[in-house]
Design goal:
41% helix, 6-stranded mixed sheet, 6 strands, alpha/beta, Rossmann fold
């Protein structure tokens, strides 16, 4: 059975690709390293966004793993515009995976690229750590269990950790962050 440790980044100063972790986020990254070390891993892959990389730098230093990046793990763009009702659009996209704003990415397209990155990260390896962002993480969990939806996304923390188990056609996950 393959396991992927799926991680949402720690608290960040913004949503831009170069937004760093906050002081609280840096403390969370240190605590995250302890959790990830207890789970063990052979490989570490992250979104190239700064907040994702900074979230696992303490783990990488302590484990001796190199942080690889995968562009497919970047956060989904719901819309390039600032939307006051973005949560309504996000909820709708969980109900209809093909729903997409003109300047955004559908949940299905994001899910497909996220799952492809997840499967590539775990190819031939027993346990990998994959670091991404909240919306994409929730969509990957929805691929594991179709009952995952907007409410699950709304309950995610920064950081958050899930262990995804892949055993043939059987898929499951459990939360590993307290």
């Amino acid at each position: 059975m393959r396991e992927i440790v799926l991680v949402r980044h720690a608290a960040a100063s913004g949503q831009q690709a170069e937004a760093p972790l906050t002081a609280e986020g840096r403390q969370q990254a240190s605590a995250l390293a302890d959790v990830l070390l207890s789970l063990g891993s052979q490989r570490l892959i992250a979104s190239p966004f700064r907040r994702a990389i900074e979230s696992v730098e303490p783990f990488a230093r302590r484990s001796g793993l190199t942080i690889e990046t995968d562009q497919r793990l970047v956060e989904r763009v719901l819309s390039a515009r600032g939307l006051s009702d973005w949560r309504d659009h996000l909820r709708r996209s969980f109900d209809d995976l093909d729903y997409r704003l003109d300047d955004g990415e559908s949940a299905r397209a994001a899910q497909e690229r996220g799952v492809a990155a997840l499967l590539a990260a775990s190819a031939g390896i027993q346990r990998s750590v994959v670091v991404t962002h909240g919306n994409l993480l929730a969509l990957i969990l929805r691929w594991v269990d179709e009952k995952v939806g907007y409410e699950h996304w709304a309950q995610l923390s920064n950081p958050d950790v899930f262990v995804v188990q892949l055993d043939g056609v059987q898929r499951s996950f459990r939360r590993a962050w307290a």
